[in-house]
């Protein structure tokens, strides 16, 4: 039996689509990452980055940590840093939902909000400047291999185990790309024929948690060879699907999960047969102050 909070991270359930998937020859599973104690898939990376950093000596209990985030990673890092007694500052654009800001502060983190018009890139620049000028330690989820290794060690093996090795397609939204990099690495080692499908927003769309990065900010952990196909989704389609997930499947999640589900259903429509696993990366309650569910 788990006996600490961090023991509860991972081993999230797979739930089969009952309504949205209409192809009888395809099984669509949703991996319910909102069941992590911090409410998102980012608990996995946060734990591995902090725990591995401490074990290797890169992070000391006296260090001041800093990280730029669009939300979920920040909540996870605030929770894990609190468990380990670490001081952390989280930086994100000022248009982040109030639920995210308040949750990070509840866990004991300092939250700094940067101007919305410079986006997450501006938050990243701010955090990096604090490292140079003020001696902070940057966890750097965009370049830290312990991000993707979390999913190599946990997410991939769980999917392989819980589908009895029958998974044919894995669908994941791409932000830091840690989830898709680590899961792809593991699944391809088990069966090179497993298709890895990444989800990005269309050029005009803004979907929290999914990015099409400018070259300068492309995550250093990203390896294009580990993704077989990249499919784009519009903000409108992602919004509609998030609402449909809640209403028709009883799955309450954010817009990035709606985007991944949109792509997974496109795949399901055209496959003769298969087993698709799509990431539901968080819970919908952290978007209630936004207009997502209006």
Automatic annotation (TrEMBL):
Domain Tryptophan synthase beta chain-like PALP intervals: 7-282
Keyword Magnesium appears in the UniProt entry: no
Source species, domain of life: Bacteria
Cofactor(s) the record lists: pyridoxal 5'-phosphate
Annotated metabolic or biological route of this protein: Amino-acid biosynthesis; L-cysteine biosynthesis; L-cysteine from L-serine: step 2/2
Keyword field: Amino-acid biosynthesis, Cysteine biosynthesis, Pyridoxal phosphate, Transferase
EC number: 2.5.1.47
Segments crossing the lipid bilayer: none
Family annotation (PROSITE patterns): CYS_SYNTHASE
Catalytic activities: O-acetyl-L-serine + hydrogen sulfide = L-cysteine + acetate
CDD domains: CBS_like
One GO molecular-function entry: cysteine synthase activity
Range of residues in the leader sequence: none
Family membership noted in the UniProt record: Belongs to the cysteine synthase/cystathionine beta-synthase family.
PANTHER family: CYSTATHIONINE BETA-SYNTHASE (PTHR10314)
The protein's name: Cysteine synthase
Organism the protein comes from: Maribacter chungangensis
Gene name of the record: cysM
